[in-house]
Specification:
This protein has 14 helices and 11 strands. By secondary structure, the protein is of the alpha+beta class.
């Protein structure tokens, strides 16, 4: 039983048992004395003495627990969380020994260990930086080459999900849905036509095949060249680019999709294998049932990192004046949203951007309430799985710590410039950085799958409700 309790809960249980034991000893002693004296008229005095002693013991034990909790148990919990954070992430700052000043040399020793760990990582990071710079140079070179070729390119894995696309393809296909890594190719090209074309390519035994494909919405016909990339590697589509098409985003790819193990049940999928959309909204006020969204910011995270160019930053016309007190917080004015899309159109764009992804937000119930309220007008249900950084923070640092975005950012040593604070995209970027730093910390605690994390989040539902009500293990 005690193995499932944290240090603070164990301390509370210890002092509780101590109080019960002391009260039991006093009560037993008084009962024995009263029995030996055999003075019935003295019984009220014994009862009063027992009650006074009991309340005194309870008060003393409660006071001692509060002192012990503040000087020992809570500092140990904070120190352990700080050490976990530095062991699992690239945080370089030493541990603030003031949080555990009553623990003597323990805090100093912990700070020394983490400082040495930071120094060791510094050398490793320098080597990684050199190799990363070389890879980025090669990537930019590849981007320039593909941008000069008058063709749009899409690479698709064996599971028919996109593993690479270039700016031309994004510009030509974004009208249907947001083009992103991990999206199903059948969201853009008619599945029947494409599967038939792939069957023809296989039957011919050739590496390439010219084919006409209809878009998924049936609005356009593309002259496409299919390329067989080999067994287990998927295929590639290339198609001519109209002259009026301007190069958009650079080449975006995730070749690890072809080798990543996934499961049909999201609860069993490793955290790093999932695609996330980290988002935030700015609103006219703090009442989701009455106020409206004025700005949406979102970013897609694939393979544990920001997918280049996959960013959504849009203003939303709330259909009402924005209160001055709200503008003072997020800086969005009536003039800025005058020509912006309404919530129905903006919500459809966000829904397209976030499809097939796990949504991540700070205080997600607040933001999601606006999309659920407008679901009918948007024409889509927002039933994505959801992770909340408030609840993740409670898992990592304990339910009694502060879990505002500013507090978590400071605790995890993340830079959050004040000039972008309380903008939708700025807060989404901060939430993304917080979440990416939390993933290795969760894994270090043995929480490696979405289901593991969901189970722990539900233990803190007194802080915020869980939005994954339909996700249960079969």
């Amino acid at each position: 039983m005690f193995d499932r309790l944290g240090p603070r809960q164990r301390t509370l249980a210890f002092f509780g048992l101590l109080a019960v034991g002391c009260i039991g000893a006093v009560a037993g002693s008084l009962m024995l004395a009263e029995a030996r004296l055999d003075l019935p008229q003295a019984r009220p005095a014994f009862v009063s003495a027992g009650l006074m002693a009991g309340f005194a013991i309870l008060g003393l034990c409660a006071l001692m627990w509060l002192i012990f909790d503040e000087t020992v148990a809570r500092p140990i919990e904070r120190l352990a969380a700080a050490m976990h954070a530095r062991a699992a992430t690239d945080m370089r700052g030493g541990i603030d020994t003031a949080v555990a000043r009553h623990l003597g040399d323990l805090a100093t020793a912990a700070s020394a260990i983490t400082s040495k760990l930071g120094e060791a990582r510094a050398g490793t990071d320098a080597d990684i930086a050199r190799h990363t710079a070389r890879l980025m140079t090669e990537r930019e070179h590849l981007t320039r080459i593909l941008s000069a070729i008058p063709a749009a390119v899409l690479m698709v894995g064996p599971d028919h999900r996109i593993t690479l696309y270039d700016g031309h393809a994004a510009a030509m296909l974004d009208d249907q849905h947001h083009l992103g890594l991990g999206q199903r190719i059948f969201d853009y090209f008619d599945e029947t036509y494409l599967r038939a074309a792939l069957a023809n390519l296989s039957d011919t035994g050739r590496d390439t095949l010219d084919q006409q494909l209809v878009t998924a919405d049936g609005a356009a016909l593309f002259d496409v060249t299919l390329h067989d990339l080999g067994r287990g590697q998927g295929y590639m589509l290339s198609f001519p680019v109209p002259r009026e098409t301007t190069p958009a985003r650079p080449v975006v790819y995730d070749f690890e999709r072809n080798t990543r193990d996934t499961s049909d049940n999201i609860l069993d999928v490793p955290l790093r294998a999932l695609t996330y959309v980290v988002f935030d909204t700015e609103t006219t006020g703090l009442l989701p049932d009455r106020d409206e969204v004025v700005q949406i910011g979102a970013l897609r995270v694939v393979n544990g990192q920001q997918a280049g160019g996959e960013v959504l930053d849009m203003l939303v016309n709330p259909g009402r004046p924005i209160p001055a007190r709200s503008t003072a917080v997020h800086g969005v004015t009536d003039a800025m949203v005058k020509d912006a899309p309404d919530m129905a159109r903006a919500g459809r764009r966000f829904h397209s951007f976030a499809r097939d992804a796990v949504l991540v937000a700070h205080n997600a119930p607040f933001d999601m309430a606006f999309f659920h309220r407008h679901a009918a007008a948007i024409g889509a249900e927002f039933d994505n799985p959801v992770l909340d950084t408030v609840l993740l923070s409670a898992i990592l640092f304990g339910g009694t710590e502060g879990h505002t975005l500013d507090e978590i950012v400071q605790r995890l040593e993340i830079d959050l410039p004040q000039d972008v604070r309380h903008t939708a995209l700025g807060d989404a970027i901060a939430t993304r950085d917080v979440f990416l730093r939390m993933i290795p910390m969760l894994e270090a605690r043995g929480l490696t799958t979405f289901g593991d994390v969901l189970t722990e989040m539900r233990k803190h539902k007194r802080l915020l409700p869980d939005l994954n009500t339909d996700l249960t293990r079969g």
